[in-house]
Specification:
The complex is a heterodimer. By secondary structure, chain A is mainly α. In chain A, 53% of the residues lie in helices and 8% in strands. Chain A has 3 domains: 44 residues, 2-Layer Sandwich (Wheat Germ Agglutinin (Isolectin 2), domain 1), CATH 3.30.60; 59 residues, no CATH class; 52 residues. Chain A has a two-stranded antiparallel ribbon with strand order 1-2. In chain A, strand 1 and strand 2 form a beta hairpin. The two termini of chain A are 43 Å apart. Chain B is 45% helix and 17% strand. In chain B, strands 2-3-4-5-1-8-10-9 form an 8-stranded antiparallel sheet. In chain B, a hairpin with a 3-residue loop joins strand 6 and strand 7. The model of chain B has no long low-confidence stretch (mean pLDDT 92). Classes of the chains: A mainly alpha, B alpha+beta. Chains A and B meet through strand 1, helix 2, helix 6 and helix 7 of A and helix 4, strand 6, strand 7, helix 6 and strand 9 of B. The complex binds zinc ion (2 copies).
């Protein structure tokens, strides 16, 4: 795709602008995007721009083949080049396949490439673990009553591990 | 519930009970989620898109938050209704474009909504009146946790919640507050705010008509970073910065009244006079004049005009709302006439 502004270079930056109630898509080369971004900076945030400033990935490898064109996600059949063209990934597996390129891109956008925060099912998991914990504790009491101290020690370690896990999860929530 | 029912009641986020509603109109938080093992919308074929739509609809139907909700397929509703829902901030413009296999769920009070098969499989949205970031978050957090028990959200231990666009990866969180910053615009401080905002990892957007001045001095500020910080950190950062902007706007408003009262008073009453007597009025002129009225009402220079009435007029004078109220399609020029009639009626004029 050619750049919408100069019509010359390959477009690598994709912007969505809302002007007068119309959504306009702009495809720009990096140079024009810089000019445009200076124009827009006072009006728009940089999110959209950053969304387009995709890491171009490794250039030609030794055999002259650009991996961004040849490496394909096995699930959605997308290449990194496809992603650079439209700014959207095709499926969750893309994150595995293009992990290296994406990490770099995510650092540019967010300043980080590791998630901190909420996890799905966390609440439910903790409830289940607490049930497990109660069960283990009562088993432990039984063993102590029966004076089976070796088995009790194993259970005690298990409880400690579980507690640590739960603490970590609570911290991540 | 039907779409037309929305017309006859006020969106709850428009009332002025929210904190700092003199400056902050509304707070919106959205979460982007995708289902495991389903291709993203842009990559899925028709059948896969339909499958996702049905699965998500079924999952949301189980939720206690959406008991009396409206479940819509976008392709089943008219173009006018789509525009109407966009004006009410219940869906995005993008959602109304490629309409096959797209869904929308709207809860009774219009505080919660879910776009299905927009850019991501699921976009939860919660909207509250005023400046209420943490309150809005706690609602959406609860919905996400509950619905997450019925639907398998795609999640990676490294990247967090996986989204179609990498700008949302991680928390999938975007929180935004709509602010009315008349005094900062009037005193030409708004450019400085823009510059500061972009350095702080936030985004600020104005609403632009033809001119360069943001329409009605309304601005939306939101977080830009979604990865590498917890939801709480992201929201806390946004909240602290917006609180500062609000304080600055308030301070400037007070200074304006102290130093330029006659000039401000003149502007506000002229705008009020025009709104009360115009027979033809465009949408952008309406927004500009209402912005002045909103300021005047907050400064105590206009008696008897409440902020929620102004918010309501802002909403119902939009093109699709006008046509819904009149139950027919209306050409732009005739709309300007109907708009002027409606504004006068709302302001108690003949
Ligand atoms: Zn160019
Ligand atoms: Zn893929």
């Amino acid at each position: 795709m050619k750049c919408d502004m100069c019509g010359n270079n390959q477009a690598s930056v994709h912007l969505t602008e809302v002007i007068n109630d119309k959504v306009t898509k702009l495809h720009l080369c990096e140079e024009c995007a810089k000019i445009k971004s200076e124009e827009m900076q006072s009006h728009f945030g940089l999110t959209d721009l950053l969304a387009g400033l995709m890491d171009l990935g490794p250039a030609m490898s030794e055999d002259g083949v650009d991996p961004s064109v040849t490496v394909q996600c096995p699930v959605c059949l997308m290449t990194y080049y496809d992603f650079q063209k439209n700014g959207k990934l095709g499926c969750g597996k893309c994150y595995d396949i293009f992990q290296r390129n994406l990490s770099e891109l995510l650092r540019k956008i967010h300043g980080a490439d590791r998630h901190v925060g909420k996890m799905p099912f966390a609440g439910k998991k903790i409830v289940e673990e607490q049930k497990d914990m109660q069960k283990i504790r009562s088993e432990l009491n039984e063993l102590i009553k029966k004076e089976e101290f070796e088995k009790a020690a194993i259970l005690r370690d298990r409880i400690k591990d579980l507690e640590k896990e739960m603490e970590n999860e609570a911290g991540a929530e | 519930m039907k779409i037309n029912d929305l017309l006859n009641k006020k969106s709850e986020w428009l009332n002025r009970e929210g904190p700092k509603s003199n400056i902050a109109i509304s707070t919106r938080v959205r979460l982007a989620r995708n289902l495991k093992k389903h291709l993203y919308f842009n990559r899925a074929d028709r059948d896969q898109r339909e499958e996702t739509l049905n699965e998500v609809m079924q999952g949301i139907k189980k939720s206690k938050f959406f008991k009396n909700a409206l479940f819509l397929k976008i392709k089943d509703i008219s173009e006018l209704d789509r525009a109407f829902l966009i004006e009410r901030h219940l869906m995005s413009k993008e959602h109304a474009m490629d309409i096959d296999s797209k869904g929308l769920v709207i809860e009774e009070k219009e505080i919660l909504s879910v776009m299905i098969n927009e850019e991501d499989h699921i976009r939860f949205q919660v909207m509250q009146s005023g400046f209420n970031i943490m309150g809005t978050w706690s609602v959406i957090d609860g919905i996400d946790t509950e619905v997450g028990q019925y639907l398998p959200f795609d999640y990676s231990n490294i990247f967090g919640y996986l989204t179609s666009c990498p700008t949302n990866t991680g928390t999938g969180l975007r929180a935004s507050v709509m602010l009315h910053l008349s005094a900062l615009v009037m005193t030409e401080q708004i450019d400085k705010v823009f510059q500061a905002i972009s350095k702080l990892g936030l985004t600020m957007r104005g609403f632009y008509g033809e001119g360069t001045e943001a329409l009605g001095n309304f601005f939306q500020i939101s977080n830009q970073v979604a990865l590498g910080h917890s939801e709480m950190d992201i929201l806390d950062n946004l909240e602290r910065i917006i609180a500062k902007i609000i304080a600055r706007e308030e301070e400037t408003r007070n200074n304006l009244v102290a130093k330029r009262k006659r000039e401000i008073n003149d502007r506000i009453h002229r705008s009020f006079g025009t709104l009360k007597s115009a027979r033809i009025i465009t949408s952008s002129e309406t927004i500009k004049l209402l912005s002045d009225i909103r300021l005047g009402s907050d400064l105590g220079l206009l008696e008897g005009i409440e902020t929620d009435l102004i918010n309501e007029i802002l909403l119902v004078t939009q093109p699709a709302h006008l046509q819904k109220i009149n139950s027919k399609k209306i050409a732009p020029f005739e709309r300007d006439i109907k708009r002027a009639d409606l504004v006068r009626k709302k302001l108690g004029e003949e």
